[in-house]
Amino acid sequence: MMIPSDVNRISRFALASDGLRLHYLEYGPRFDPQTPVVCLPGLTRSAEDFDRLARGLAAPPGGRRRRILALDYRGRGRSGWDPDWTHYNPIIEQQDILATLAAAEVTNAIFIGTSRGALHIMMLGAAQPLLMRAAVINDIGPVIEPAGLMRIKSYVGKLPPLASWNDAVDFLRQNACAHFTDISEADWDTYARMTFAEENGQFKLRYDPALARTLDAVTADSPMLPLWPQFEALANIPVFGIRGENSDILSPATFAEMSARHPAFEALVVKGQGHPPLLLDDPTNSAIVDFVDRIA
């Protein structure tokens, strides 16, 4: 899929109910009659994760341009850091999402969520069903595998000294190579630049390290309530489900059950990728663009 270079991209800000400044990226025409697309990132991720996909969605080949919003949760990307780490929780994040959409005057959208973002989609679908026209769920489901969650806990908030972008790529590759076996050198570099920020030769995370505290109570034996009721709240809208072939968060069994329980579920397994697929490869992004085009 060719990535349009002429797509308009603007950083915008909204205020949370407690006054914290929330950032989002807006692509494409602000005033467009087509259903907009809202992108929600993973736990420690930012709006930058959707840049390549958002450009393709905003100006699909042979299609009309459309509006895309990619959100930064509080404590991530260019949104403000919360002095109270306990506010990094799904309930407050849901309030922030709704505040951002209200500021952007979005009342109905196609949602794309990666990992935690897909959990937000399921919860929003149950709480705000009129908000959602369709959904893309990237590598998470109603049942989360404990081993994968413990792996995530092992690295959140931690960053060794990095001297160059090559070091950053090597660090990511060492931690992810077992699950991501089919990533190009260029995409490893892109992934590193989406993950870290460089200021005056110093590398830092794109999120508040205090996010790690939200996983303090998570253990391999922690009971995790399945979210089947929230997933089934999406039964009246089309859902496109994505699973990384090597994912340790979304099992093949859960993915198959999602397909069986949803009357309009389309499934894609991304070969050679783990949790979550990076949304950098052309086949995956083209499949998402096609799904959105058919819905919109």
Description:
The chain is built from nine helices and ten strands. The chain folds into two domains: 9-156 and 220-295, Alpha/Beta hydrolase fold, catalytic domain (Rossmann fold), CATH 3.40.50; 158-206, no CATH class. A hairpin with a 2-residue loop joins strand 7 and strand 8. The chain is an alpha/beta fold. The strands form two sheets. The protein has an eight-stranded mixed β-sheet with strand order 1-2-4-3-5-6-9-10, with helices on both faces. A two-stranded antiparallel ribbon has the order 7-8. The mean pLDDT is 95. Helix 1 (51-58) crosses helix 9 (282-295) and helix 5 crosses helix 6 (185-195).
Task: Please tag this protein with its features.
32% helix, 10 strands, globular, alpha/beta, Rossmann fold, two-stranded antiparallel ribbon, 296 residues, 2 domains, 8-stranded mixed beta sheet
SSE layout and pairing:
Elements: E1 9-15, E2 21-27, E3 37-40, H1 51-58, E4 68-71, H2 90-103, E5 109-114, H3 116-127, E6 132-138, H4 146-155, H5 165-176, H6 185-195, E7 196-199, E8 202-205, H7 228-232, E9 239-244, H8 252-261, E10 265-270, H9 282-295
Parallel strand pairs: 3-4, 3-5, 5-6, 6-9, 9-10
Antiparallel strand pairs: 1-2, 2-4, 7-8
Kindly summarize this structure in a few lines.
The protein is of the alpha/beta class and 296 residues long.
